[in-house]
Amino acid sequence: MPDIPVESPPRLDIAPRSLVLELGDALERRNVNYCCQWKGNWKKKRWMSGEGDIDLLVDRTTEPLFTAVLEELGFRRATPPPASRVAGMESCFGLDPATGRLIHIHVHYQLLTGGFWTTIYRLPLERALLQSTTHRNVFRTPAPEFELLIFAIRMVQRHRWRDVLGGEPKWLKAIQGELDALLKQAELHRLADVLAQHLPTISMLFVDECLASLRPGYSRWGRVTLRRQLHRNLQSHAKRAPTALKVMLKVRSLLTLGGRLGAAPAKKRLAHGGTVIALLGGDGSGKSTCTQELAAWLGGDLDVMTAHLGRPPRSVLTLLVGGLLKIWRRFKNEPDDPREFPGYLQCVRELCTARDRHRLYLAARRFALAGGIALCERYPMPQNYELAGPRLDPYAERLSRNALGRWLMRREQRYYQDILAPDVLIVLRIDPELAVRRKTTEPADYVRARNMSISAADWSGSGARFVDAGRPLAEVIADLKTIIWAEL
Predict the structure, then answer these.
(1) pTM for the complete prediction?
(2) Using CA atoms, how far apart are residues 270 and 484, in angstroms rounded to an integer?
(3) 402 burial class (0-12, 13-18, 19+ CB within 10 angstroms)?
(4) Is the domain covering 273-487 a CATH 1.10.3290.10 domain?
(5) How far is Cα 420 from Cα 369, in angstroms, rounded to an integer?
């Protein structure tokens, strides 16, 4: 087996530092005017592990510095579907080397509360809030009284008419600890001065009533009345969701029984464009397992599709030709000899497979063109045509004798010529004997030969990145994540 250089990232004995900690240090070093987590700083463990997004309010005047920090740390911007986009907000994702997870930074350039599906309010307190920040834990955070105010407004927005009949909201009990902590820390006399200067439509009496509504036992009708009063106080800073969007969301919720029947909402796509990633390797190299792991890793937040071009979905034409081929073989008495010409019906069947692969390739390309990430297995390349490529070449002499045969060869060749190289090409390298021990469902000689064909291929000029797939799965996946994120 030729000695193929493995381009996997080098492993260090020292554990990598958390991307979240690196971000906090870089923001401080660059003097970015920002603050973090006005939605509750006690969720630090959750967003440090990558399980929740980190909300940052960034001063517009320091946006260039903030952007430089994101680029320095390898963050990528992503855009939500058009219906859910909100001006003044964006999402950025970065790969945390300490956990292998994606860190989601939810960037706000205005102080906004609410969601795109309901009503969004802008609280014109950004300057005063940013001036109150102090560096605590990882990030700069606002004074507790600001956190308390925004917390109260956000929670009052959650009051619903259905709670009048349904009793206490289910979320009410869960927020009591955070509410107690904020009340203990906040200096409300300072908040009164800020409201009088920046948001005079909201009084401290109203804030006190909002806080009281977050305690068990408050009047159910009173909570709904408070929510309506909040809207009247902030109506000049409100953006309601379009009626058509509300109707669409309601209809989808009814048709899917609240999401129980699937129809998951569309996910974010990379702002700078999508990517087609091909994962190649012989049988037993772990292509399918790695593809599933990578899809789960990226697909939690980003729009991802998987495509197995070795076994593409069969079109109606392919199924029809395949059915005719089975009938013909049933009535054929002679055993199949791979050295003999298989017949024109089999050649048509091979052409149908090439057509199906080409159709799946087009779907992956168009998906990436729209900003998605396409993970492809058994991607047809000249170096691995033996595994997924033209099948009519061995019969060229026979097929070239008539117009039908020549047309079949030209058409198959055209389909594979139109399949251009992927944006990212990764080859999983594994010792053929180890692959034989892994792939016990196939004959040993068959598995060995397919892996040797991958190893013996000339990959020079293809831009392929090689990963040693003979190691434990966790190490292989870690290397794949690093390579893929650097290429996105």
Answers:
(1) 0.84
(2) 13
(3) exposed
(4) no
(5) 14
